[in-house]
Design brief:
mainly beta; 4-stranded mixed beta sheet
Length: 147
């Protein structure tokens, strides 16, 4: 349930959460190789206190390596947010959503559509909910596209 593509949360120097796949690089590479060998893999994760869309590269953090799968990380429904922008050190990051909410996934034989749904106020049971971002993955293409 934890990020596979890798997250470097450092601001002035590298900072990795080693209880995610960043702490198990050889195991992660084996898993990514298996994903790359399958048709239409998609990774759904969470447990980071932010929502994200990431490219899972064959070699994490190496933009020159092929994309094996898209990764969609659900935002937290109520946990404190990690609001720091991690894009400077995480080149595989496509979008970061620093809001409370969840994601939905609609799957058809030809495509996957993921919608990030966010709450206006997590402490209000009657809070409004809106779609903050929608992404599609077409069968046969491991790169997600924002719509």
């Amino acid at each position: 349930p934890v990020v596979l593509a890798g997250v470097n949360a450092g601001i002035e120097s590298d900072a990795f959460y080693l209880d995610t796949w960043d702490g198990f690089p050889q195991g992660r590479e084996r898993l990514i190789a298996q994903l790359g060998a399958s048709s239409n893999p998609v990774v759904l994760t969470g447990d980071y206190h932010a929502g994200m869309v990431l490219d899972v590269h064959e070699r994490p953090f190496d933009q020159a390596s092929a994309v094996a799968a898209p990764e969609f990380m659900s935002p937290p429904i109520s946990s404190p947010l990690f609001a720091d922008d991690i894009s400077a050190r995480t080149p595989q990051l496509r979008q970061q959503l620093n809001e409370h909410g969840y994601l939905t996934a609609e799957v058809t034989p030809g495509e996957l559509t993921v919608a990030f749904r966010v709450l206006a106020d997590v402490s209000d049971p009657g809070s409004s909910i809106r779609t903050a971002a929608t992404w599609k993955v077409t069968a046969g293409d491991p790169v997600a596209r924002q719509v």
